[in-house]
Amino acid sequence: MVTLAEVAQHAGVSASTVSYVLSGKRSISATTRQRVERSIRELGYHPNAGARALASSRSNIIALMVPLRTDIYVPVMMEIAIAVATTARTHGYDVLLLTGEEGPDAVRRVAGSGLADGMILMDVELDDERLPLLRESAQPAVLIGLPADTGGLTCVDLDFRATGALCVEHLAGLGHRDVAVIGEAPAVYERHTGFAERTLDGLRSRARETGVRLLHRPCEGGYDATAATVSRILDERPDTTGFVVQNEAAVEPLLALLRQQGRAVPEDVSVVAVCPEQVAVQASVRLTSVSLPAQEMGRHAVEQLVAKLDGRGDAEVVLLPPALTVRASSGPAPVR
Amino acid sequence: MVTLAEVAQHAGVSASTVSYVLSGKRSISATTRQRVERSIRELGYHPNAGARALASSRSNIIALMVPLRTDIYVPVMMEIAIAVATTARTHGYDVLLLTGEEGPDAVRRVAGSGLADGMILMDVELDDERLPLLRESAQPAVLIGLPADTGGLTCVDLDFRATGALCVEHLAGLGHRDVAVIGEAPAVYERHTGFAERTLDGLRSRARETGVRLLHRPCEGGYDATAATVSRILDERPDTTGFVVQNEAAVEPLLALLRQQGRAVPEDVSVVAVCPEQVAVQASVRLTSVSLPAQEMGRHAVEQLVAKLDGRGDAEVVLLPPALTVRASSGPAPVR
DNA sequence: CCAGACAATCGAAGCGCTTCGACTCGCCGG
DNA sequence: CCGGCGAGTCGAAGCGCTTCGATTGTCTGG
């Protein structure tokens, strides 16, 4: 293991000079810099992370807390995680992967040990138990998702209210009067995950404004559960011609069921999904959808956090504007 | 930020004593231990990770390299990653998330900087460019997946040869004589990802032994590509009554197509999938499948690595035995 | 009753890096 | 010709922890 001191000796300079070459915090003559850089290369020197962290009290690590549940929004989570990791690297940070399992303790551990310089929390609930800790520990953090009280916190999320509104608007614009929402699993609402409720808010308020009749039903996802939900919806509102789906696991089952019942998409029934682009494109019908900009969220979160760590205080809440892409699953409401 | 020294002072002992209480590397009297532990609690002490790493040259961090591609086996990857993270925690390790993006450089960086004590590589290719580095740097590592040359490396993987064999065996046992394999995307085979080729090996050799006629076709996944692949297969071998699918993105399309063509599953056609359990259960037909034991692989990988780090040298290659679960998609071959 | 063994504790020497103050030049303006 | 300045470099003092003797008692067996 090559050390700074060895590089210094090899280059014929002092250790501090090498350090300044590395950090650029003081001016170094061109010749010295080159000599040092050459030694670094020749010896294959890599600064020791621990020593660096100790001396500078900066670990150059960002902690990312992902939810433990592997049953839900997996691709989205993964995409965010990967976006976080790659974006972090471009800013010179590495990413520490924490699972939700440890819960609040993880916050304590990371903040206390100086393992990471800051953290990004995913899957934030409206009344998340990690938040008080975050506030009191003054740990630089960015949330992906929106809690009930955002005071003093930096958050990044898709604007789900606007997303909901956009879906209804699209269907209303096509003449649909009865729209059903196939929502997330009941557990998601019970946990008060913010995005689900905000979407619903947006759906409802725009429905009110446009005179659309809205029916919302949570749905577990999977074929059987979706079948039950859909048949219940069609019993209650036989005139339903528009569906909004916010549950990846219900998308394909829904399409299969509609086909099976002889309802053509989009001639008889229109479907709008809130899902990652990939899902919308790969479905059996190319879906009109509002995409979940997972990558962008991950990237934004890191950039907000890095800004904080650099002392550039920044915006508190960033809501990414939703974009609806019209594909093959929505069209004018059938004339009756 | 509370330090060891402050805890020592508060407890009226020396710093080294506190350290030994924490590490348990020397015997400490019960009374002293309790006093120290009390001080730790009262002061809310957390050891500083950097200092610890520097002094002990152990970071207690495991690096996990996940593939950058977000288009393939995402749920499996995620499940493995989460299993790695949680298992690592139970052994006192944290997990650093590296994306494939950096490629071999990441290995150099991590090995050189002492950022992590060891690493786990996912999505290993037959002739992976990270392997030479791994060998020369003597970095403790575990691969998930099997390269061509496993010499000096520790690997964990599902036994894909046996998996392939098992699938054929199951179908052969049910009387199927013509079996088609819908494989991974061509790119996967071109990259020489080991598991795809090994599965194929297993399929073929058992087909030979059981006298089954086997047709293998790579498939991109998605509806259109799968449709093309299936119709080609049925043109070439109209008597095909058994399908083996090893591409999650082709599973649902395949089932839809079969339905559409009026081929009943499992009465007319049997389908066996190689996929995560969740996919098999949530499909429109509950699939007979060999599951990808993602969690188990993650857990095993960590345990192998921890063993290495503890100086307990261990087995070189661990192949997890496949298990086929019979569900609703396979049955006796139709009588002609 | 003493040598030797053992348990419990302390002190000090680092681990490899960053950073601050100080020092040495060469150069400029007065 | 001298004081002062900035660029470039060095030395040394830590950062908070682990770990290796060394030290002090306390027991034990002979």
TrEMBL record, chains A, B:
GO molecular function: DNA-binding transcription factor activity; transcription cis-regulatory region binding
Domain HTH cro/C1-type as annotated: residue spans: 3-32
Organism: Streptomyces gancidicus BKS 13-15
Chain coiled-coil ranges: none
Protein's recorded name: Transcriptional regulator
Keyword terms, alphabetized: DNA-binding, Transcription, Transcription regulation
Ranges of residues in domain HTH lacI-type: 2-56
SUPFAM superfamilies: lambda repressor-like DNA-binding domains, Periplasmic binding protein-like I
Signal peptide: none
